[in-house]
Amino acid sequence: MCGIIAYIGKEPALPILLRGLRRLEYRGYDSAGVAILNNGGLNRVKTMGKIDILSEKLKDQELLGTMGIAHTRWATHGGVTEANAHPHSALNGKLMIVHNGIIENYRELKNQLLDVSFVSQTDTEVLVHLIGKYYSGDLRQAVETALAQVRGTYGLVVTHADHPDKLIAARMGSPLVIGVGENEHYIASDATPILAYTNQVVFLDDGEIAEVSRETIKTFNVRHEHIQKRVEKIDWDEAQAEKQGFAHFMLKEIYDQPTVFQDAIRGRYNIIDGTARLGGINLTDNQIRDINRVIFIGCGTTSYAAMAGKYAFERLAGIPAEVDVASEFRYRDPVIDNHTLVFAISQSGETADTLAAVREAKRRGAVVRGIVNAVGSTIARETDGGTYIHAGPELAVASTKAYTNMIAVLILYALQFGRLRRLSLATGLRVVDALREVAQKMKETLELSEEIKKVAQKYSDYHNMMFLGRGINFSVALEGSLKLKEISYIHSEAFPGGEMKHGPLALLCPEFPVFAIMTKNQLYEKMRSNVEEVRARGAKVILLATKGDDRALELADDVIYVPETMELLEPLINTIPLQLFAYHMAVILGKDVDRPRNLAKSVTVE
Ligand code: AGP
C-alpha cells in the first residue's frame, strides 16, 4: 500500500510534500521520491529507505516551486530499488506520475510501447509511458485515454512541465482525497497528510478523474462527463486519520481484509481453465508435477494459515503436506530431498526461526519458495522464488489480514498444483467461483461486529476459554485462541473437537466457556456431538454456525451466524468473527490492542 501526496498552491511545495510523506510512512515504505515543478522543469529526487534519507538528499537543493508530487513505495511489482521508486517519468522527464495500486495488464500494455527503453520493473512506469503516448497537449484527455485500457487498481496523480497550473488525479480501487485550501489544493492517499492544512476534503470515487488547479477542482466521471462533488468536513485528528477513522490499526486491518483479499487473488486465477497461475514460483509445470511432498514452515498465526494450506493441498493437489513450526523444523532432522517443496511463509519476511529453517531446507536440497508480505525482505530474497500476498503494511502486532491473504495464496497454489495433476475442470471452476465470492462474504461477516462486541462483553469476566474446531476449522480454532490470548491476556486453548474426551473435557465447568466452530460441512454432525459433550459438563457455549442452521440455537448460549462457503475456504470467513471477538474483548478489558505486552511485530531473534 503506497502513499501519495501532491500539492498545487502558493507556498513552496517541498516542505509540504516531505511532511506529508512522513505522515504516510505508516502505509509502509521501502523507497520514496518527489518531483517539483521548478523554473519550467520537473526536478525529481528518489531514494531507497526512510523519508529522512530523501530529506537529507534534498536539503541543499533550491526547489522553491509551488507544485509537486511525492510518493512512499510499498513494493508490489519489482524489487526495492531507487529505479523502481516513484515518481516515474516519460516524455524525457516532462511527464511524471505517482501511483498506488496494481496494473494487472501492464505486460500487455508494454507491447504498445516497444520503442520505450524502460528503466524500472514497475507497472507504473508502463502507465506513464502509455499516457505519454496519448499526450498531444491535453493532459486530462491523455490520462483518460490511457486509463481506458488499464485493468487493475490505481490512485494516481500526474503532472506535466508544460502545465504549471494543473494536476490530474484519478481513482480506481485505491483511495484518493483532495484537500481544499485557499487557492491551494492537496491530493493524498488518505486524509492523514492533509489534516495539518485543512479539514475540507473531496473524496474521489472509483472511475473518477479530477483536474486540480490552484483555484478549482473539476471532476469527471468514467464517461468523461463533468460532475459536481461535495466538499466534506473531516472531524478526525491526524492519529485517527492514519487509522482511517478506526480506533486501532488492528480493527482497520480486520476491515481491510475484503479489499486486500482481492489484491491477493487479482490476476492469479483463470475462470476458463478453473486454475491459478502464480508465476513467481519459478518452476515449470513438469517440475511442479515432480514435487511429491510439501512442507509449510512458519510461526504463530502464520503456522495456522499454513495448516489451512495443508488441507487445501491434500484435498485439491493430492500431495502429502505437512506443517512445521519453524523453530522446530530447524532443529529436528527433516528427511527432505529435491522432490520436497518447502514453503516458507512469513508476513514480515524477517522472522529469525523461519529464515533459519529456509537455510536448513536449502542445505538439505529441498525446493524452497516463499509466501511473504514484505517485498524485498530477507526471506523473500533468500528463497528461490515465491509469491507476495499483497496484504499491505500490517502494523498491529496481532496479525489479521496477512493471515487471510496467506490462505488465499495457499489455496491458489493448491489449485494450480491440483490442475496440473488430477483435479478436474469442474472442481477447479467451483474453487475459482467460490474464491470470487469471498470478498463479499467477508464484508457480510464484518457487519457482525456490534453483535460480537455484545458477546465479548458477556464473557469479559471469564479467565479461561477453549476453542474447538474440526478439520480445516481446527486451524481457525487455533488462530482464534491465539488472537484472544495475545491481545486480551485471557488464557485460551484450542483443540480438535474429537480430542475433548481424551483429556481436555476435565477442564470444563461453568467457569470455562467454549467457543466452538460448528459450520455446515462434512464434519458438522461430528462437531455437533462434541458440542453436546461440552454442554453436558455445564460449560457455556458460543457457537459459530452457518446462516440458517436453527438447530444451533438448541446447543448454545450464544450463536454467531456466518455465510456458507466451500469448506476449504471457510477459514477466510470463519476467522473474522474470532478476530473481532478478541479485538472487542481486549478493548473492553482496556488492553493495548495494537501493542500487546511482551510481543513484537517481527521476531527477528531466536
Ligand atoms: C500473530 O498475531 C503474531 N503476530 C505472530 O504469531 C506472528 O504471526 C508470527 O510471529 C510470525 O510472524 P511472520 O508472519 O512475520 O513470520
How would you explain this protein's 3D organization?
This is Glutamine--fructose-6-phosphate aminotransferase [isomerizing]. It catalyses: D-fructose 6-phosphate + L-glutamine = D-glucosamine 6-phosphate + L-glutamate. The active site is at 2 (nucleophile), 601 (for fru-6p isomerization activity). Residues 284-425, 455-596 form the SIS domain. By secondary structure, the protein is an alpha/beta fold. 36% of the residues lie in helices and 22% in strands. The chain is built from 19 helices and 27 strands. The strands form 5 sheets. It has an 8-stranded antiparallel sheet, covered by helices on one side. It has a 7-stranded antiparallel sheet with strand order 5-6-7-8-12-13-14. It has a 5-stranded parallel sheet with strand order 19-18-20-21-22, sandwiched between helices. Strand 7 and strand 8 form a beta hairpin. Bound molecules: 2-deoxy-2-amino glucitol-6-phosphate. The site of 2-deoxy-2-amino glucitol-6-phosphate (AGP) has 15 residues, from helix 9. Residues 299-302, 346-348, 351, 354, 397-399, 486, 602-603 line the site of 2-deoxy-2-amino glucitol-6-phosphate.
